[in-house]
Write a structure and sequence with these properties.
Layout: H1 2-10, E1 14-17, H2 24-39, E2 45-49, E3 67-68, H3 73-82, E4 85-89, H4 101-106, E5 110-114, H5 120-145
Parallel strand pairs: 1-2, 1-4, 2-3, 4-5
Length: 152
C-alpha cells in the first residue's frame, strides 16, 4: 500500500478504467476512486470505460464525466498515452475491456489492477475439478441413496 501511495503522489495524470458493459459495481468503484483522488488534490484524473453504462447509474456524482471509449476513442487514446498511472478496477484480465485493451497495453504508464473477482481461468479450473469430484462420487450416491424406498 505504501508503494501505491507513493505512485499516486508522484503521478500527474491518472486514468481509471473498468470492464465492458460496466455495472453498478464497476461505475461505483471507479467514481468513488475518482472522488478520492480529487479529494487528495489529484486534479488530472479521468474515468474511461469501454462502452456505455445503464442510464439508471447516472445518479452517481460525475457519472456524466465518464468517457466511453467506443464513442470518444481518439480522446481516450490520448489520455492513455499521456497517463503516468492507470488503474484497472473491477476486472482481472485485459480481455474484459474489449477494444480498449490495446490502448491500455501500449500505454507507458504504470498499471495497477484492483479487483475482487477470481481469475477466469482459475474459475474454470475450479469448475472442472468440482465436475470431476461429482462424477467420481455419482456411482456411490446412486447406490447409497437410490435404493431408499421412502423419499428423503
Amino acid at each position: 500500500m505504501e508503494e501505491m501511495k507513493q505512485l499516486i503522489d508522484k503521478a500527474k495524470k491518472i486514468v481509471i478504467t473498468t470492464h465492458k458493459n460496466p455495472d453498478g459495481d464497476a461505475i461505483g468503484s471507479s467514481l468513488a476512486f475518482f472522488h478520492f483522488l480529487k479529494n487528495i488534490k489529484k486534479n488530472d484524473v479521468e474515468v474511461i470505460v469501454p462502452d456505455s453504462f445503464p442510464y439508471f447509474l447516472y445518479w452517481m456524482t460525475d457519472a456524466d464525466k465518464v468517457i466511453c471509449y467506443d464513442k470518444e476513442k481518439e480522446q481516450a487514446d490520448k489520455l492513455f498515452s499521456d497517463a503516468d498511472l492507470i488503474f484497472s478496477l473491477d476486472y482481472n484480465a485485459l480481455e474484459r475491456v474489449g477494444d480498449m485493451a490495446e490502448a491500455i497495453k501500449n500505454a507507458s504508464a504504470i498499471k495497477i489492477m484492483i479487483d475482487h473477482h477470481q481469475y477466469f481461468y482459475f474459475f474454470l479450473l475450479q469448475f472442472f475439478l468440482l465436475y470431476l469430484l461429482i462424477v467420481s462420487f455419482l456411482p456411490y450416491c446412486k447406490s447409497k441413496f437410490m435404493k431408499r424406498k421412502k423419499p428423503i
